[in-house]
Amino acid sequence: MHERVFAREGGGMPVGDATVRLHEAIDLVAGIDVSEVPTADGLGELLEELTRCLRRLDFEFHRLLRSFEARGDHVPLGYRTAKQWCRDRLRMGDAAAATSLKLGRVLIDMPGVSSRWAAGDLGAEHAGAIAKVRTEETREAFGEWEGWLAQQAVDLDMRGLRKVLAKWRLQVDPDSGEPDRIEQDRDAHVSATFQGAVVIDGLLDAIGGAAFKTVFDGIVEELFKADWTEAKTRLGREPLSSELARTPAQRRADALVVMAQRAHVANPSAAARIRPLVVVVSGLDALAGGLAELWNETPLSARQLARILESDPDLERYVYGPGQVPIAYNERHRFFTGKLRRAIQVRDRHCTARGCDRPAEYCDIDHIEAVTAGGRTRPDNGRVACNPDNRARPHRRFHGDPDP
């Protein structure tokens, strides 16, 4: 029987040998006794290294899948398309098969991403996000910036990468019709089922969505605090999330009802207009970039910003000095309040604990150096911290804290 060969630079290896060795390596990992990894750091380092291995393996899967499709190997196997083969032989869903095939096709145009992915420095999620900004309009610039974008994927978390990609897209293609298309395509559907339940579905543009989400998220947070207080009173201790009266999905549904009830009882003529906050960072780098942001970090095109300014918005101005430190605030207060609190919220945007992205408006402003230890209530000693992470100090690590 002819042995298939898996060819790579520097020679080849029979497919059978390669897969056998791969299974043997997985068996070695499966044989790890967690009790023999005594420290959290030890187990954490193991998981980090396993993630790199998984990413490397995932890259090879996409590389081989691209070759499989390009050579038309699905045809002699009885399938009209590679997607059909993936669904049948790999048991992949339609969306997963289409995404994997599409990502495999563009790898040849992303050498920087491919090399970092092959090394395990980034994964399919990062590569897919970068691939989405490669359009007909950005193709030429993408070739020049692709290596830099790959480095951003290595250096940033997914939240930061998506923000960089959105800004890059607007910088390279400022006349992109994407924001206008979304605004033109905005819609909402509210329909009743035969049992009387109501189904809601919709799409809002960035500006309208920010106005809606600001109010909606505030009500969800309000309901969460009520559920937490009720559970704590009922149990006599700090509750687990699973012990709250409502699930997150139920709170979101109830928040829509609360929004409707409050709108019904409000006097429309006296109600204040809801305006999204546009954060314009003033500095040499920002001025050269020329982009503005909504409070939720959504970058705005010049056209979107003009529409906001035409609506007679309420404007707030904060000036930051070196190191993103708000300038000229009173230092004698025990608590971060007023404009000082707002300035730190605008600067940090979300909880600064590592791995947490809870929006700043639902967080505390925490003293980095405690007041009891001589810490001052001033901008450079304040940071946004959500209540659970604030309570978890000193065991919780924040951005800027040294690694152990």
Map the helices and strands.
Layout: E1 5-8, E2 11-14, H1 15-30, H2 40-70, H3 82-89, H4 94-106, H5 111-118, H6 124-132, H7 139-155, H8 158-172, H9 178-185, E3 187-192, E4 198-203, H10 206-235, H11 248-265, E5 278-279, H12 284-289, E6 292-294, E7 299-300, H13 302-310, E8 320-321, E9 325-326, H14 338-348, E10 364-367, E11 382-385, H15 387-391
Helix pairs in contact: 2-4, 3-4, 5-7, 6-8, 7-8, 10-11
Give the tags.
mainly alpha; 11 strands; 3-stranded antiparallel beta sheet
If you had to describe this structure to a student in words, what would you say it looks like?
The chain has 404 residues and is mainly alpha-helical. The protein has 4 domains: 32-174, no CATH class; 208-274, no CATH class; 278-310, no CATH class; 320-391, no CATH class. It contains 15 helices and 11 strands. The chain has helices at residues 15-30, 40-70, 82-89, 94-106, 111-118, 124-132, 139-155, 158-172, 178-185, 206-235, 248-265, 284-289, 302-310, 338-348, 387-391; strands at 5-8, 11-14, 187-192, 198-203, 278-279, 292-294, 299-300, 320-321, 325-326, 364-367, 382-385. Strands 5-6-7 form a 3-stranded antiparallel beta sheet. It has a two-stranded antiparallel ribbon with strand order 1-2. A two-stranded antiparallel sheet has the order 3-4. Helix 2 packs across helix 4 (94-106), helix 5 runs parallel beside helix 7 and helix 10 packs across helix 11. The chain is globular, with a radius of gyration of 26 Å. The relative contact order is 0.05. Residues 1-10, 270-276, 282-288 and 328-332 have low confidence and may be disordered.
